[in-house]
Amino acid sequence: MSEQTAQQLRQQIAELVGRYAELELATSPFVAGKDTVPPSGKVIGAPELQAMTEAVLDGWLTTGRFNQAFEKRLSRYLGRRGVLTANSGSSANLLAFSALTSPRLGDRAIGKGDEVIGVAAGFPTTVNPILQFGAVPVFVDIELGTYNINPALIEAAIGPRTKAIMLAHTLGNPFNLKVVRELCDRYGLWLIEDCCDALGATYDGRQVGSFGDLGTLSFYPAHHITMGEGGAVFTDSPLLKRLVESFRDWGRDCYCGPGEDNTCSKRFCWQLGDLPQGYDHKYTYSHLGYNLKITDMQAACALAQMDRVDDFIAARKRNFDWLSERLSGCTDQLILPHATANSDPSWFGFPLTLRDGCGVERLDLLRHLDAQKVGTRLLFAGNLTRQPYMKDQQYRVASELTVTDKVMKDTFWIGLWPGLSEQHLEHAACNIESYVRRLR
């Protein structure tokens, strides 16, 4: 088959995929009581399907040209020099933390028994890498409204074995990066910013993730952009990028990409560990690593999504503002969310907390909303220390987790993702309002 014919077939396939997307992915008007208001979801169309199809037709399958293009595009967007994709946001957190355990960091490496400050009100895989390695998470309480760590409590939690702070920007709302960054500088601590829910959020005009030594993202369908399953780690440090890459790619010392050989021009000239001189660098391993790469089809989807990321984030902000205004008459019963000072969130969800004494039980409200086809989610694990798997884990609680327990008992969130129309939002808000105000 000639090259021209192959290209013509690709073009025809792309056109057919576009027509299919128009038919199958078109949205229909919302019907209250019949249609669900999902708490999260993806927005994809012809560009994503066409890009993924093109990657499939390449036949490369593992990370290739689409992944390289996506990493470069994401690097420009974030303003960070080093970006590496991974197969999930949870894997990205694992890689970011693992990099800080490398012996190549000398005395600054996190060791077993060292402490890492975080919160118990969040997603477990922000904390699990700490436990899996054998370090000790130290839990600090949070604030209502922002749902982030209480900055006034952090310094008291720092001890002689504290090596790092690892925090998520809760539901896209940045934590107080001024205080956290200053404390990290003062005490010589690493900072990992879990930005999985916060792509596009800023603090003091800077992108979240640009304050820490390492940042992470998730591209699960619920997140700001998607590739199905996927994530990324980013940093400005060439050393940390190299360590992340090693842990991601089996722990090997070589940094050749898939299909590459002898990038260093001395593949058979190395002598590391107790291996013989000249042992193939491609099969020399300096870390206890994993295989956490993505496929090029996933990268192709995310690359197409980057064309829409600004619109997606703007829609989330509009929906947040709409819900804030619509539910403003319920503040006697509900604590509404607010942005951290000096921040511009990129909201992942709209969190609500029932006030003490309001006469409403969360479980009853959630059952009511479920019956009305309004999807809800809790603030992830609520209080991690009360989860079954934490029973025999080693951790330290630095302050009473009073607010964390309040969130576990009385907080939930609803969706504001770009696929929701004003009719979706009105149905959700109307049912919340009517239920919480019924006892007035």
From TrEMBL:
Domain of life: Bacteria
Cofactor (UniProt): pyridoxal 5'-phosphate
Name by which UniProt lists this protein: Lipopolysaccharide biosynthesis protein RfbH
Designated gene of the protein: rfbH
GO BP annotation list: polysaccharide biosynthetic process
PANTHER family: DTDP-4-AMINO-4,6-DIDEOXYGALACTOSE TRANSAMINASE, TRANSAMINASE
Keywords, ordered alphabetically: Pyridoxal phosphate
Cited InterPro entries: DegT/StrS_aminotransferase, PyrdxlP-dep_Trfase, PyrdxlP-dep_Trfase_major, PyrdxlP-dep_Trfase_small
